[in-house]
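Dear support,

I submitted the protein below through the web form. The confirmation email said the job was done, but the results page showed an empty box. After a refresh the structure appeared. I'm attaching both so you can tell me whether what I see now is the final result or a partial one.
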Amino acid sequence: MPAAFHRPSRALVRVAALCVAASWLVSHSAEAQSKAAALTGAERLDFVTGPVIGSGRVVGLGGAYTALAVGSDGAAWNPASYATRNLWDLNWFEWDVAFDYSPGAFRNTDFDNNGQTRVASNNDFVTLGGRVGFGAFGLGALLRMQYYSLGQGAQLQLAVANYGVGYALLDGQLVIGLGARTAAMTISDLTRGGPAMTISDLTRGAALIDFSGTGPEIGATLGLAGRPYRIGVSARLAVHAERGSSSLVAAGLILPHQLALPAEVQFGLAYQLGKRPLNRRFVDPRQFDKRFREAMLARRAQRQHEQLAREAEAERMRESFVTAPPRLGQSPRQPAAELADEASAAPRDPEWWVEESRTRKLEEHELAQAMQAAADERKAQVKALSHHYVLLSSEAIVTGTTHDGIGLESLLTQQRQVSGRELSLGLRFGAEAEPIARRVRLRLGSYFEPSRFSGVGYRPHATVATDLRLFAWNLFGLVDEFDLRIGAYADIAARYNSIGVGMGMWH
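What the results page shows now:
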């Protein structure tokens, strides 16, 4: 054959060989990338909830709640909320409860804000809380739960519980709180238990795997009486929850090594426009009652002292008839049993005691009426406060890093995507007003959700919430009457939409 024919053939062979080599390198590179993208079980779940999840008021204010945190629903933002008093807290003992439910974000959402919408799983968010206050002291707890369906027979449950105590100083103008937060993750087999499943099994099922861990938190609020602003700050140490067993796989998912809540620092500032005050001093109502009772006891002591004096004088007169006149320069003798200690002696006249008993019964009745009248007056003063106001709130939250972190969506999709490599900063804003006084409250908010993933920017959210006062109720006579409310809220953003409803006490 001609030489010219051999050259092209050799060239083709060389090109084919290069193509095969390139294909082999590409395939092995893709395989390596695929292996690198799969979870290994050495990761940590970066359990940072970017979207605001909480009560209707918290969501409606765009999460800007650190300075305003009060009651059980503020525990996740600032532990000072356990002892913080509202304008309407007039009793030494106060309590509140909170319940909110959201069916979560709609399907095909980007819950982690990683730039992708790969998760299509049913999910629910539930918030439960309660708090009691005893004067300057308060304690409470808040539980926030997320449920995700894994196919037909398994469920992923994520929960964060905040609990602690608080103490108010300077008549409630400065409040300090100390608490803890516990993070837990459980994957349950809902098919276990058969027809004899208990109520607990319906919400939890038979646990296949669980994580749990606890870390401390601290917070404070400053709200000077008569000033229209309030400042709040809180800080939390990181929480690392280890696997409860050595199992690496549950419900078909390769599990991370740890569940990690990074450290957080929050700073909030609130300002209120209008005649309605934002802050006030808390005066223990028992001080008012104590003054009424002390005045009553002083009147009793005065009557008893006067009766003792009369009885002593009568005794002296009687003794003067049976004793000899004193010698010159001597004073009359006094019976030792009668005047040893007039102040501590009790009157002996039975008729006086009959009349005194009637007087004391009347005094107790008048005391109860006076105390109730004072309490009614304090309530009237609170009800008379102006409802024409606009409350503005803002806050910044800094979230720490998570080494070898992945997001929740990575766990659900089993595709590795690094989360929490760098610090993140979130900004939140909110406003509240009463368009219909004593009946309807409206809240609007917005927040900029940072992404925990490289190359993904901030995601702005718009929030709205409303509360409707229903009627007064005393819980079948078990507690003092309170006003019941219902509410609804929504959170809208790119690749994320969430709605919810709630119920609680109207103040």
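Response: this is the final, complete result; the empty box was a page-load delay. The chain is about 25% helix and 40% strand.
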